[in-house]
Write a structure and sequence with these properties.
binds zinc ion, alpha/beta, Alkaline Phosphatase, subunit A, binds magnesium ion, two-stranded antiparallel ribbon
C-alpha cells in the first residue's frame, strides 16, 4: 500500500471513529415500569384524560415479549427479574436464575461503577418489581428477607411503602435503625422526604403498600422528581427505576376506571420525567411493562364523553406483548421487537456498566 492511501485510510478511520463515538450515549437512565400496563390500559388513561397523554411524546416505540422461563404468562417476579437482570426465570423468583443463582441487576451494576442509584414505587419497596432490582430471593413473598437485601446494597434513594418489613419483623431486627447506621436518612412522610436536600434516603412512607389513586395524590410524580434531584449531582450519572405498581392491581380487580386513574398518575410522572430529560440532554428514559393484566379489550366508547366499554378476559395476567417507549440518547435501541431480557444488555452497553 502506498503512503497516500495509508494516510487516507487512517484519516477515514479517525473520522469514522469520531462519528461512531459522537452517536451520543446517555449518562443517566430512568427506567419506568407500568406494572400490568398493556396498550389497552394506556388507552383507558388516554380516553379519560381527553384523548391525550404525555406518553405520546415518545418517538422510539417497540414491543417486549414477556414470557418467563417457566410460564407462557409471567408474574411480576420473573417479569421484573427479566427486565432488571436480563435473565428469564421461574415465576415467583426475585433476582435469581431458574437454578436459584443470584444475578446482578442493572442497579447493582450501576452501583459497581459508582453511579448513583434509586427506586421509587407506588407500592411496598419490598414488592416483586422493585425487589427484582435489589434483592435475590427464591420467592417474592419473602418480604422480610427482601427488605434485609436492601442493606446489602449501596442504593442511594428508595421511596415507597413497606415500612413494616423493615421495622416490625419476626427476627426483631430494626432495619430502619440499621439504615441510619449506614448513613441513610429514614423518612416516614412526604414532608420528611421533601426536607432531605442531599445524601442517602430511605423513604418508607407507608406501613404496607402506598394507597391507590386518587388517595395517593401526587406521591409518584413528586417522589420521582425528588429522587432525580437527589441522584443527579453525581458526575458519573445515575440509574433510577420508577414503578406505577397498581395498574396491575386494578387489572386483577377488572376495574377499568381505576386502571385509567393509575395510568394517568404514571403518565403525569412520565411528563415530568420527560421535562427533566429534555432539560438535561444526557438522560435516557425507557417506559415499558412487565406484562399485561386482565386481558383488557375496549370494543366501544365515546371520546368526547371520555368514556369507554371495557371487557376483561382474565382476572390474572395475560401473555401478550407489551409496549416499549424510549426518549433520549440511545432511545433508538429500544424500538422494534425485544425480549424482556434485552433491556439489561442494552442498558449495560449504553451506560458502559
Ligand atoms: Mg409491581
Ligand atoms: Zn399482577
Amino acid at each position: 500500500m502506498n503512503r497516500r492511501i495509508m494516510l487516507l485510510s487512517t484519516v477515514l478511520f479517525i473520522i469514522l471513529s469520531i462519528s461512531v463515538s459522537a452517536k451520543s450515549k446517555p449518562k443517566n437512565l430512568i427506567f419506568i415500569i407500568g406494572d400490568g400496563m398493556g396498550i389497552a390500559q394506556i388507552h383507558t388513561g388516554m380516553i379519560k384524560n381527553g384523548n391525550t397523554l404525555n406518553i405520546e411524546q415518545f418517538k422510539h416505540i417497540g414491543f417486549s415479549k414477556t414470557y418467563s422461563y417457566s410460564h407462557f404468562t409471567t408474574d411480576s417476579g420473573a417479569g421484573g427479574t427479566a427486565l432488571a437482570t436480563g435473565v428469564k426465570t421461574r415465576n415467583g423468583m426475585i433476582g435469581m436464575s431458574p437454578d436459584s443463582v443470584a444475578v446482578k441487576s442493572v442497579l447493582h451494576l450501576a452501583e459497581d461503577k459508582k453511579l448513583s442509584t434509586g427506586l421509587v414505587t407506588a407500592c411496598a419497596v419490598t414488592h416483586a418489581t422493585p425487589a427484582s432490582f435489589v434483592a435475590h430471593q427464591i420467592n417474592r413473598n419473602m418480604y422480610e428477607e427482601i427488605a434485609a437485601d436492601f442493606l446489602k446494597t449501596d442504593i442511594d434513594v428508595f421511596i415507597g411503602g413497606g415500612r413494616n418489613n423493615f421495622e416490625k419483623r419476626l427476627d426483631n431486627r430494626n432495619l430502619s435503625d440499621e439504615l441510619r447506621t449506614k448513613g441513610y436518612q429514614v423518612a416516614h412522610t412526604e414532608k420528611d422526604v421533601a426536607a432531605v436536600k442531599s445524601g442517602k434516603l430511605a423513604g418508607l412512607l407507608y406501613p404496607d403498600h402506598t394507597p391507590a389513586m386518587p388517595e395517593r395524590g401526587n406521591f409518584l410524580p413528586d417522589m420521582s422528581m425528588k429522587a432525580i434531584e437527589l441522584l443527579d449531582d453525581n458526575k458519573k450519572g445515575f440509574f433510577l427505576m420508577i414503578e406505577g405498581s397498581q395498574i396491575d392491581w386494578a387489572g386483577h380487580d377488572n376495574n377499568a376506571d381505576n386502571i385509567a386513574l393509575e395510568v394517568i398518575d404514571l403518565d403525569i410522572t412520565i411528563g415530568r420525567v420527560l421535562d427533566y430529560a429534555r432539560r438535561d440532554g444526557n438522560t435516557l428514559v425507557i417506559v415499558t411493562a412487565d406484562h399485561e393484566t386482565g386481558g383488557l379489550t375496549i370494543p366501544d366508547g365515546n371520546i368526547k364523553e371520555k368514556r369507554f366499554n371495557a371487557y376483561f378476559s382474565t382476572k390474572n395476567h395475560s401473555g401478550v406483548m407489551v409496549p416499549v417507549f424510549a426518549f433520549g440518547p440511545g432511545a433508538e435501541e429500544f424500538s422494534g421487537f425485544l425480549e424482556n431480557t434485552d433491556f439489561k444488555q442494552k442498558i449495560v452497553n449504553l451506560l458502559k456498566l
